[in-house]
């Protein structure tokens, strides 16, 4: 593969976090790396694979540090190439000098995710597994880490390959009819039924597997209410820090404010919104429109109310099909009858917050129950949605009795969408887009 040959030169990068630490590991990979590296080491002359050597590392001909050296012989390495890991004492100055020595020896600074990129190109892992690795590294909650871990172990490639094979079989049937139009008559009814069954299966898969992506990104939780009901105070209380400006002046919050909050290992993306009311202020009205959009996209709504206030804003909100927590606020300044509310709180004093957090987890338990298959990247979901779109278009084409060659083109495009998901037809642009989000050294 030409693309594979582009990424074989020797590279190096710090694989551990930069900063003062007990150990800092530098990773090297590429063709003939020992020829460049061994002159920098006191020993060994002929290292054996998978053995740890205690040796000295030299920079500019002088001792720099006593290190641990491990050699991995191709193809039995993470990248599938010759690899070396060098463990230094974790002083950034030592690492800078070591990296300078490696660059002078002919190594190149690795690009973000380039080690994993090479693992994909060399067939050590597939693209979905590479994305699962990145998801494990970047997980922001325990549940998100569990999702990423399961995606790494179980993956989605097997299920996606089954869908692809079904599409290819349908495509083969269509191709026979294209090549022998006088001998084979197109059975539009049978073809339509098979395409419809496949579309329904893929649609159900997307719905189930997308839970993993929602868990990783955080459950969108929108705090909704009239002006001055205490939405920003509640956000600050949930975060245990002052994030939003709190004021008695109505309309202080004019834009949505988003923050991550972990409750019992579940990640919530909590969104404070502008108070919903009739306004002649153009800027405030823009904030209100953004609030309504956030409400539309929300997984969970916290309807915050002051029992002494006006709940008229609810008339502007469509709550059908929404998960809702009705919370009465300001229990610190008045006695509140809890009838009609799920929880009574004081955002100012923290009273009732534990009950609210418990409700947030309970109301979204269906979103955090992981199915058999898991999507961990938006790219994977987009590829599946593209596949589904082409299948729907092919069904419409069949219903309209268009020529079979157009149906063939649409079904082929559906297969290509799954090929992109699996990384069957890798391009440099695709790899750049995926691995630009990885850390350097991975």
TrEMBL record:
(6S)-5-formyl-5,6,7,8-tetrahydrofolate binds at residues 27, 85, 124, 442. Mg(2+) binds at residues 232, 253. Residues 218-365 form the TrmE-type G domain. Its EC number is 3.6.-.-. GTP binds at residues 228-233, 247-253, 272-275, 346-348. Pfam families: MMR_HSR1, MnmE_helical, TrmE_N. GO terms for cellular component: cytosol. It is found in: Cytoplasm. InterPro entries: G_TrmE, GTP-bd, GTP-bd_TrmE_N, GTPase_MnmE, MnmE_dom2, MnmE_helical, P-loop_NTPase, Small_GTP-bd. This is tRNA modification GTPase MnmE. It comes from Mesotoga infera. The lineage of its organism: Bacteria, Thermotogati, Thermotogota, Thermotogae, Kosmotogales.
